[in-house]
Amino acid sequence: MNTLSSSALLASSFTPSLNITTPSFSKSRTTPLFSVTNASITIQQQPKVALIRIGTRGSPLALAQAYETREKLIASHSELAEEGAIQIIIIKTTGDKILSQPLADIGGKGLFTKEIDEALLNGDIDIAVHSMKDVPTYLPDKTILPCNLPREDVRDAFISLNAKSLADLPPGSVIGSASLRRKSQILHRYPSLNVQDNFRGNVQTRLKKLSEGVVQATLLALAGLKRLNMTEHVSSTLSIDDMLPAVAQGAIGIACRSNDDKMAEYLASLNHEETKLAVVCERAFLQILDGSCRTPIAGYACRNEDGNCLFRGLVASPDGTRVLETSRIGPYAVEDMIEMGKDAGKELLSRAGPGFFTS
Q: Where would I find the Porphobilinogen deaminase N-terminal domain in this sequence (predicted)?
């Protein structure tokens, strides 16, 4: 974990090392078979009809996740290996359009999924690839989420040009973060630091702001940096004890229409059951607490060395002055894990008391 120079950070912040190209839409389903040019008729090749249309946001990280999904589908189903069999369609969401305000001020729920869900229900796409931490606890009617890909590292990464950890930052240092969860946990341990909570944009944008001195440090999900092959920017990695992750952090979810048996069959072949159960447990916890997007909430379920599920949950005040934590251990089985998540949520609701989630 080394500290990067400003020039090195600038150089790679503009171009992620993952080789992603913007999907071409020249092979549209509506492309004519014939075109007239200078009074002559040119016969064009009939376009390939995509077997699967993947809907995704357009950020480099979202595209990396969509391409990962495509590669796994191709590896599992030979008929999808043909050129044009899988099409990636970029959809701009509300969360992508409104960047001038903190997420908590513009709604929180469904900001990065609503338009993609609508495209799925309208039949414009066949499957939707989401970062699971962006997915509301209630799925839209007539959609299902039968697949989670294997989970990446759930930890948060600390990135700075002149410090190796949060503890190394001098008092008054500004940390950029769009996450109330991160802000509250940082301030709980380091109240002398200043957290800017509207530090928004994709990974490349945030690293550019860091290199320009807008902030002295930032925290990003290590999973995203790994998927973009950008871990060289990481100054240090925060332990789970120091920074409990967001619910479903590092997990990719893939949704389809509930009446689309073919897509459900494709997605079931990609599902990683251990990840899916962990996400189900964490989302059960979140569902109990889901009263306000202004409340910092963290939750993490994993398989411990005995093969059981270890769940840890946290709620906090945005200023970090009050942090409540709990944990559960039980069988690594879906019903048990759902009950563990719900029970942990109910405990923290009771301990927090009236007004904690609405203040």
A: 52-264
d(Cα 215, Cα 178) in Å, to the nearest integer?
Answer: 13
In angstroms, the CA 164 to CA 160 distance is: 7
- Catalytic pick from 96, 117, 126, 134? 134
Query: In a 3-state reduction of DSSP, which class is residue 280?
Result: helix
CB count, 10 Å around CB of 110?
A: 18
CA distance 224 to 7: 22
Decide if 265 contacts 79 (C-beta within 8 A).
no
Residue 289, both tokens: 């607490």
How many angstroms separate the Cα of 14 from the Cα of each of 11, 60, 62, 137?
A: 6, 11, 16, 34
Give phi and psi for 152, each to the nearest 5. Answer: -85, 180
More confident: 200 or 326: 326
Per the annotation, the verdict on 241 as an active-site residue is no
The percentage of the chain sitting over the pLDDT mark of 70, rounded to a whole number, equals: 81
Exposure string of 94-106, with b = 16+ CB inside 10 Å and e = fewer, is ebbeeeeebbbee
Interval 44-99: pLDDT, tens: 444 467 899 999 999 999 999 999 999 999 999 999 999 999 999 999 887 666 65
Greater model confidence, 52 or 109:
52
Confidence bin at 357 (pLDDT 50/70/90)? low
146 phi, psi to nearest 5 deg: -85, 0
Q: Which residue has the tokens 């409990």?
A: 244
Contacts of 184 (CB under 8 A, 6+ apart): 296, 316, 317, 318, 319, 320, 323
The predicted structure's pLDDT at residue 107:
59
pLDDT, tens digit, for every residue of 116-159? 999 999 999 999 999 999 899 989 999 999 999 999 999 999 99
Q: Which two tokens stand for residue 281?
A: 């447990």
Let me know: does 94 contact 129? Beta carbons within 8 Å.
no
